[in-house]
Amino acid sequence: MRQASLERMTNETEIRLTLQLDGSGESRVQTGCGFLDHMLTLFSRHGRFDLAVDCHGDLQVDAHHTVEDVAILLGRAFDRALGERRGISRYGSCALPMDEALVLAAVDISGRPCLGYGLRIPTEKVGEFDTELVREFMLALCRNLGAAIHLQQMSGENSHHIIEAAFKALARALRQAVAIEPGFADQIPSTKGTIL
User: Which of 53, 103, 119, 141 is least enclosed, having the fewest CB within 10 Å?
Assistant: First the structure.
């Protein structure tokens, strides 16, 4: 079972998170931030990851600490669940349309964190959610997962559509990257013999 259950307790957030890589897309997400809950729920569904998140953060300040800390823990959960990375495909990509928006996500679970961020979100907010936090989420995720994550927006005018396309595309790219390749389950997908 490729899964991880982690906790993160700081003066800003208290988070409990469980991730099952080989799931069916079931989720139970409660962060106190409705838009983040929506994004994590569809991330779980499109990645076929089972995900449970319970977060109590200092939302009276803003959602920054909640968004960033959830991404830190999610990245760490992927890292823990993947172990040595033995047998994984390592790479994944998806070009995903969401009405007028089209976003490409590409992932390399390389052990080398890098974010290529090419989203151009036209508004500062979606509802109460600060759209600049999308980049903070992706940066924390790639750093703690140890992956190169590239997000490139090819079209899009509606902020909600652009962000949703990015989360869905990332989920589907990660689903490819973490999949075990038939016949190669014992191999590390690197000529170096290690990814970590």
Answer: 119
pLDDT exceeds cutoff 80 at 196: no
Tokens of 92: 């994944």
CA 127 to CA 59: how far, in whole Å? 15
pLDDT at 194 over 90: no
Domain assignments of the chain as residue spans, ordered by start: 3-178
Q: From CA 74, how far away is CA 51, in angstroms rounded?
A: 9
Task: Put the strands of the sheet holding 148-155 in their side by side order.
Answer: 91-98, 101-108, 148-155, 114-118
Which CATH superfamily includes the segment(s) 3-178?
Answer: Imidazole glycerol phosphate dehydratase; domain 1 (3.30.230.40)
The type of residue at 98 is M
The DSSP bridge partners found for residue 3 are 20
- Average pLDDT, rounded, for the chain: 97
User: Are residues 167 and 135 in contact, defined by beta-carbon separation less than 8 angstroms?
Assistant: no
- Three-point CA angle 10, 79, 170, nearest 5°: 95
Whole-model pTM?
0.96
Q: What are the tens digits of pLDDT across the range 95-127?
A: 999 999 999 999 999 999 999 999 999 999 999
Whether residue 129 contacts residue 72, with contact meaning beta carbons closer than 8 Å, is answered with: no
- Which H or E run includes 146? none
Structure tokens at 28: 């139970």
